[in-house]
Design goal:
This protein has 307 residues and is an alpha/beta fold. Helix content is 22%, strand content 28%. It starts with a strand and ends in a 5-residue tail after the last helix.
């Protein structure tokens, strides 16, 4: 089964790439191991995507992306990629069921937030547990929230949340932050931020939504309860790139390095979305990445020479 373009990953980046590629009359295959939509499909409400002034349910948005990509002829299959062979002009994609080949390849498998792996985290995701203050902060106006983490992302998001929340607790397992000094000082001078040092969250509790955190002080061993309406977790991100062959250059954290045309270190192989080294990981930037990658792939395909 030979295609002009294979896209691995069915989130906003992959679906946008599929839309642009299919509209350019490229034979396009999108391979997604679960349900198209990616993390967007599990987001209850999205307020910061242009064109939806009242916001939109994440699942509904994902289905619209999916429908639009299919409308122009994208073939979408549910299979998990087990191996890539990127040597030579023809790119080979192997799944548990089949092998597919193409003139060009777009990687769009995204990234996932590192989880605390504590009771209640999964159950309350989208109901008080969040991994994106930019996405969900506005839902916590005049509420009490906690942020877990001590790096730049955690501290910056804690500061961001003070625009909405009445009180922000910054919980860190050590007695000093890892964030850069200027960000630390900004947080420490903010009267809405309270620091909870040497502490980890052991359980997230609630009824319909989060209303309590069970914390443990790592120095004293004391277990305590903290009333909170939400918890934002920033203990790291992991790009979904472990399946990639070593010839694709990545950062020490595993994010794929690309140029402005989304091309990776291998000609004809592009990357789009959250798995790419970039400043901002949002739906709008993923969609932009996908569109650019598809156009760049089309140019590569125009000059394709096998062998």
């Amino acid at each position: 089964m030979f295609y002009d373009l294979i896209i691995i990953g069915g989130g906003p980046a992959g679906l946008a790439a599929a839309l642009y590629a299919a509209r350019a009359n490229l034979t396009t295959l999108l391979v997604e191991k679960t349900m198209p939509g990616g993390q967007v499909a599990t987001t209850e409400h999205i307020e910061n995507y242009p064109g939806f002034p009242e916001g939109i349910n994440g699942f509904d948005m994902a289905m619209k992306f999916n429908e639009q990509a299919r409308r122009f002829g994208t073939k979408i299959i549910t299979e998990e990629v087990t191996e890539l062979n990127l040597q030579g002009a023809v790119k080979k994609v192997t799944t548990a069921k089949n092998q597919y080949t193409a003139k060009s390849l777009i990687l769009a498998t995204g990234a996932q937030s590192t989880k605390l792996q504590v009771p209640g985290e999964a159950a309350f995701t989208g109901r008080g547990v969040s991994y994106c203050a930019t996405c969900d902060g506005a839902f916590f106006r005049e509420k009490v929230v906690a942020v877990v983490g001590g790096g730049d992302a955690a501290v910056e998001e804690a500061i961001c949340l003070t625009k909405f929340a009445s009180q922000v607790y910054l919980i860190h397992r050590r007695d000093a932050l890892k964030a850069t000094k200027v960000i630390q000082e900004r947080a420490k001078s903010n009267p809405k931020i309270t620091f909870v040092w040497n502490t980890v969250v052991e359980e997230i509790k609630g009824n319909d939504k989060v209303d309590e955190l069970i914390n443990k002080n790592l120095v004293s061993g004391e277990v305590s309860s903290l009333a909170a309406d939400g918890i934002f977790i920033y203990v790291g991100m992991k790009p979904n790139t472990l399946f990639l062959p070593p010839e694709i250059k990545v950062t020490p954290e595993g994010y794929i390095i690309t140029n402005e045309e989304m091309e990776t270190s291998i000609p004809g192989v592009f990357a789009a979305g959250d798995l790419r080294k970039k400043l901002l990981r949002q739906v709008v930037t993923a969609v932009a990445d996908g569109a650019i990658a598809a156009v760049a792939a089309e140019k590569h395909i125009e000059n394709f020479q096998e062998g």
